[in-house]
Every structure is written in C-alpha cells, then in structure tokens.
Amino acid sequence: MACSLKCGSYVSGFNETVSSSNSKASTSNKFPPLSSDVLGKLLVVPDQKKGSRNCSSRTGNRFSVQAEAACVSRSMRWWEKNRKTNMVKIHSAEQLVCSLQNAGGRLVIIDFYSPGCGGCKALHPKICQLAEQNPNAIFLEVNCEELKNMSHCLNIHVLPFFRFYRGAEGRLCSFSCTNATIKKFKDALAKHGSNRCSLGPAKGLDESELMKLASAGELSLSSLQLPSLKEETTEDLVIMRSMELSGLLNNAENNRMKLEKDCALL
C-alpha cells in the first residue's frame, strides 16, 4: 500500500548521540530512514545488533515511532465507496449553506459522519442504497473530522447523525441512527420523501446557526442571504401597500358609520 507518512519519533534509552559503555568518547549515530506498510500503527524497532561498535551492549533498549498518515490509500476510504450521483461531499460551511438554499423544494438530507466511526462505516452501504432508491433527494455528506468547527457550531455531538430539510419549511427532523435503528431513517424518508411544492425560498439553516457560524469565522456575513437582510422585492412592496390601503379604507368606512350614527342622535 503506497502511502506517504509524517513520522515523529520518541527514543527510549538513547539520545541522538549514542555513548559506548566502554569509552568516554561519543559519536553521532544516525538512524536509517524508516518505512512501514502499517498505517497509523505504533512501530517498535529493535536496537542495533548486540556488540555493535557504537551501541550499548545492554539489552532491552528499544525505540518506538508513531507514524501519522499524511494520506490514506483510496482503498481504505470507505466513505467514498458506492457513492451515488445525488450524494454531494461538503467541503465548507459556505457550500453547505448554498446547497440548502439552492435545493428548492427537493428533500435534502445531511449525513454527518467520521472516518473513524465504526457505526458510520457499517451504515454507509445502506445510506448509498437509500440514496439510489430516492434519486430526487439530495444527500449532503459532512466529514466531521475535516469540518470540526462547523460541526461544533451546529451542535453535532453524536455520530452518525442526520438532518432532513425541505424548501421554505427548513429543518424537518434530526436524529442519530445505526444499522440496528435504520427504521428511523426509513420512516423519515416515508414521511418527508414525497414530492410536494414548497412555497417561498428555501430556508436552510436557522438564523441562529448562521450567525454562530459567522461568529466562528466559518461564514462571511456579507455572503449570508437571511430573509431579514434581503431587500424588499417589488412583489413584497405591492402586497404591503395593498394591505396598508385596505387598512385605510376600513378605517374610513368605520369613521363614516360612526359619523352617521352620531348625526342620527342629534
């Protein structure tokens, strides 16, 4: 398996300079570069051979190397397997907000997962299957390891976790489930999966969540399209003016009736 590693080493019983037990002089001992086929595991490398010129003859000295993967073999990326065309990987909070706002009346499901989550890995094939069976729904995949700050702002603390959204209704439901409780996911799909019109623009995340993301530096306030920050459209102005005019006419009619009543009493 080809993989580049960033290695940090801790040497037990040795310094960079290894002293001989029979000599006062010290010599620099350079260790050869390390390589491993084991990804992300603790590697234990024995000392040089007993009796070596620049090594202590005492046994039991070993040093360990903790290897951290800088890349992961594509065959190891279970979260990328069997992905369908309606499954979209989210790379930023801005992309998440835009995806929700641009979904129109389509059902949107946000799948929060982590590569190291066993429950997420076990559930992934079933989610892919449900995505294929519901091509009109949009599945947004959020890697909580890559987007920790955003996930924290959205109060995601349990994995795997799902949120359902649709158009102007905004968030429909949210829950955590596993393979054992997949019925919760299927029930939510049955309830919210039917195609229907959604009047008004897509709501997406709550304003409080948007503001929290903005304060955490995940979003720019200038890019937010909050209803309270939108300019009034011509249609909105016409409706408002009509309501105002209707109110004025009602007041005028009430005043006229009151005046006639007063005149009849004179």
UniProtKB/TrEMBL annotation:
Residues in Thioredoxin domain copies: 105-169
One Pfam family cited in the UniProt record for this chain: Thioredoxin
SUPFAM superfamilies per UniProt: Thioredoxin-like (SSF52833)
Alphabetized UniProt keyword annotations: Redox-active center
The UniProt record lists the keyword Hydrolase: no
Domain of life where this protein originates: Eukaryota
Cited InterPro entries: Thioredoxin-like_sf, Thioredoxin_domain
Signal peptide range: none
Similarity comment text for this entry: Belongs to the thioredoxin family.
Protein name: Thioredoxin domain-containing protein
Provenance organism: Hibiscus sabdariffa
Organism taxonomic ancestry: Eukaryota, Viridiplantae, Streptophyta, Embryophyta, Tracheophyta
